[in-house]
## 1
Amino acid sequence: MAVTIKDVAKMAGVSISTVSRVINNSKPVSSDIRDQVLKVIKETGYVPNPVARSLVTKKSNIIGVIVPDISSLFVGDLLSGIEEIGRMYEYDIFLCNTYGESERELKYINLLKSKAVAGIIFVSEKLEKPQIDLIEQSQIPSVYISKNAKDFDVYSIGIDHYKASYDMTNYFINKGKKKIAFLRASIEDNIEDSERYKGYKRALEEAGITLDRSLVLQGDSTNESGYRIVEALIEKGNIPEAIFASSDELAVGALNALLDNRISVPKNVSIAGYDDTRIASMIRPSLTVIKQPIYDMGAVATRIIVKLIDNHEVEEKYIILPHTLVERQSS
């Protein structure tokens, strides 16, 4: 059975409130009594309840992190940045995996509120007003990472997805490609709301290339989805000159479908991904990508949440980090 604060008080011969004062450094305690309490804590291995402690100190050392898919390579790199900077500021991470489900997001927001977390970093494919409203009602400092975060008056981190998509589409156009497929890995209700789609469409328009809707395809962020989409294109004989996928894993699936059908990459079809997760440079041919500074996004989000927790001013609400076009073997 775990040692309780009551056990520590009894063994040290003091009151529970005295033990609490020693742990939280909230009120003066004589050095002899402090030493005795700390000795018992060390001997018993007692660990204070973080929720109970936060009620006394009015501040916990836990940051809640809500993510859509913990198995995602993007989320993994993001968590590395969040965890490392959190540790630097002596914050622990409470991780919640929603599988991209709105109801789970709301459930976890309420859970984090009950745990008295100091702040929340909310990662989502698509932010929705009920989730934002619930976090604001809880009065917990929050930072968001999502493609549509700039549509709300919240603190958020991201890149210029419109410009990134525009740059990659132009890259293919400058290589003489006209039949460019766009594989979406997002879940926006309306494609016209997608910044990545807008950038792709704008680049085609400026080059005088007619948009071919049959080459704008929707999937999820998995390589299985990318494989199915491209295999269907091959079966229809609708093979593009280039494929721009809005996630690395989607691009890997597309690449495998082409290679399994003996279509050479990049000789016959060029491919590009989005994010630059570890898999992009590991696969052969290695992937040309739009590189998001994923680790930095997590690190900056954590630095901002710590500032908000400490009531320090944060001048910018929407922080745009630079993206890079990385050319590799697939193009």
## 2
Amino acid sequence: MNTKPIMNNASNTVGTEGNDNLCQILQRHAKAFPFRPAIIDSGTASTRVASFAQLEEEVSEAATLLQAAGVRPLDVVLLYVPLQRELISLLLAVFRLGAQALFIDPTYSPDKVNHCLRLARPKFLVLDKRINMLGMMAPLFGIKRVITFCRPDDGIQHTLKDCLNYKTGNTPVSSKESIARVGANHPALITFTSGSTGMPKGIVRSHGFLVDQAALLKETLPSQTPGDYMQVLTTLPMFILSTLAAGDTAIIPAKDDSALLHQLKYLAPDRLLCAPQTLGKISELLSTNAIALNTIKDVVVGGGPVFPELLAKMRAVMPAAVLTTVYGSTEAEPICHKSYTPGECIKTNRGLPLGKNIDAIDLRVIDAKLLRNKKEAVILTTEQFEAMCLPAGADGEIVVSGDHVIKSYLGNVGNNQTKIEVQGHTYHRTGDAGYFDDNGEVFLTGRVDAAIYLNGRTIYPLTVELMAMENKSIARCAFVQIRGLAMLALELKANRPKKEVLRELTKVFEQAEIKIDRYIAIKSLPVDQRHQSKIVYSKLRKRLAFVW
């Protein structure tokens, strides 16, 4: 177990003797290997490369400009900027000042954005110039200053300085200000959950949390890449931070297919770190262009379930890569991981295999029925909690505790529904159903709130979906229950007649003694907007509500 506490008793104010600021690590990297590439991305004209020394200079300049605009320690700064190098520089600049960076998912509906703004209460907004509406609404939410981000290719200083001088009349002070001294518990980053089952819940990560999480990810994820460092292509800002903290090179993938293909071929990334949807897109792009890349040694996938067919597609174009699936959540990353060497396949067993939980996590499976519709705080003794925990082989809700598991949400909103207090230990309810076998390996069987009750049996949807997807004519499916009817919604491939596929499925489920009342062909299943990997069962039920 990891014994170092993240949320400790360190001061929440700037000026403590220690300094857990992530920027300290990057500053050391800039001195140790100044010319090593830190971030590679695509600009409007060509590929851009920023070394660790250049990134350090850019972060320092951005911090100076934000400071000139009035940003002070603990101020909340909302960053509404596309994923590119400047976003990471601005994020680190906020850390450098001891302020708090705020991310709000651009895919959120207006009511969810409103909810997040009222919870986080940002004072400053750094906004892409193309998004005018949010800037116009900023005063309604108490945002004191809007800074326009202009997106040129010639650096952060030109991007922000003209705007600041014009708006404030300030002359930026020296760009060599020191890094704010912060304790491990000093808040650094505010993000929100996906909100797929309700309003998003706010998560505050401290500086100590970010540093420890980066170290844990580096320690946890296996690597087949020789040498001291690797080049990592990733779409996830949190993993860009952990990549930089490890001294590795982060490649931000281009949105344009031709530019992305150029990155894959000529930048030769050692590792892909992405969601299943992104891996599928990259695999399809390489396959369409008849390209196989032996340079990719590691593929790490998180944010959604990885099915056997996706692994097969990846293997065809990345034959030398080891695939590692990472199971976690916004509140706890990582929880489990499992690796597949070239030639090895995913073997499902009443659920998707997640591997064993990492040493820093205490993972339990509890009887989900005991906390169904529970709205008040759950406070248990150790004996009461142990009585709720299920033995090997029994399906229930996966709950986790550990130093890198978020203990509380912003404003405590959502704690009662997702946290269990057990005599000084906080367990997070993942909302995922699963079990562990006699060897301690964890299997995912679906979402707890998507459980289906048939003839006295509780069936979690992934169990049925995996059985159906063994039929190679099914791209994806979802198992739901509406008005007592068990329905299987299917995304069918165009390779065989629909009646033939349904006849085969009927036989499979009759043998398994699972009664399916309706098979429904559907063009596309609703998935989460963030990673486009998880089925949103609540939306699917609404879409199928007319079916009797």
## 3
Amino acid sequence: MLLEELFFEIGIILVLAAALSMIVHRLRQPLIIAYIVTGILVGPSVLALARNGEVFEVMSQIGVAFLLFTVGLGLNWRSVKDVGGIAFAIGVGQVLFTSIVGYVIGLGLGLDSVTSVYLAVAVSFSSTIVVIKLLIDKEELDTLYGRISVGFLLVQDFIAMFVLLGLQAFSGGASVQDVMLQTVLRALVAIPIVWLTSSRVVPILVRYAARSQELLFIFSVAWCFLVAGVFTVAGFGIELGSLIAGIMLSGTVFEREINARVRPLRDFFLVVFFIVLGTHLTFGSIMQSVVPIVVFALFILIGNPLIVMLILRSLGYHPRTGFLCGTTVAQISEFSFIVLAAGVSIGHLQADVITLATAVGLLTIAGSAYLIEYNEAIYDRFAWAFRWLEPKHARVERELGERAPKIVVFGFHRIGAPILETIRHMRQPYVIVDFDPQVIRELSEIGEPMMYGDAGSEEFLEELKLEHARFVVSTIPDLAISETILGYLKRRRYEGVIIVSAKTPEEAAKCYRAGATYVIVPSVLGGEKFKELLQKQKTRRAAWARLGLDNQRAMG
């Protein structure tokens, strides 16, 4: 009879979760909100349907294990070098400053120092899964701010890994010095073992398991439990063991296949994890903590983006890039709940801190979904407020003499690089415009004419005197920027060639209507293909005549 009751209990809860998920999806919110609300409804304060707490706790722990396992699959050691110094500086700086400010806020709200430290660290982490999903939905994962955001989120994951390692050491009642010593010693022992196993043993096992899709699936699941179990026995904990298990498989060529196979299993148990979080949230506890909930939620939604914007500005980035990156840290992470849950299990925190964090998570995840979705429109609306952060437009580093640039290229990433060689062969003065300081430094080192500036600013376009160029190319697939360039040139009765970029054919059609000569759709036309297009254009006298260039000189 107990099994039948448990079956119907799980069934009713999942049906309710599915119904709420449909409503939340209709509102274009992350489904995690539906799961937490489901937990609130089935919890003791409303319907009291979740009676078998131990069963759901075990299922939620499995969900956490699979979540960290899949996160580990994305933390390829070989790709760490691609994160770059910028992502490392932002990741470490944001976690540090957010933790400091969060700690001060906690003390100001009357919380004790230990609780303030835990909450400060917890709110410094952002949800990699939520952010990447939203960026993929917007098709902006490969934009400048998308690449930077993914980079520092990766750094955050590494920091969270070491925080969990330290908490496991604390669980034994060790002092701060002992914790630091134990953490270093355990890392020195674990890293060589993990590296040797990953490089020598794992490839052989995975290659054999990959002979069958079903065998690869069961091997991956078993590997997660095996490594997590070994690390737990060694005193590291299930969470860190699951993360390491994923990292050990991340360097294989079957990482994507493993991820695809395990993801449905992870999603199912993760639903239970967030439902269990919701069961801890009662209306009485919310009313008791309403002030801390609101203050921490506002700090994460407003303070975190400002912190990231200021850090990026100090590194030379445009405030637009800083704002867009900042919107990706306006929520708390799954790691936040895991860190707090570890604090509760150790005895450092009271259980009601989970209630506070869950309510803050519910508010910030919902709010950040809208921030990321409409971040560009929000920045355009409030750009005047960030004008004081804008750097002075840099002058062209390499003198062009008295000749004004006849060719202007906006954006150097992906498409810009392949066409540079062809532009050089046009034998006309040109300039490359970008607002990525790292790109500007690289161009400066190789002696390319460049300018630092925002293509979406009409003031910058006027300072650049863009209307005097005869060939304008924008490789930035941002409709707002393309429309700004096209509108600026149209008002000045521009008669040259304008090539812009768009994400979709629908956006391309809008650009054509706005006056574009040609529109690049990166998913259809890549840099190398565009290079061929330019080379063909070079051989056509009519095109060169339209550019106002000398035919013989161009053919030469």
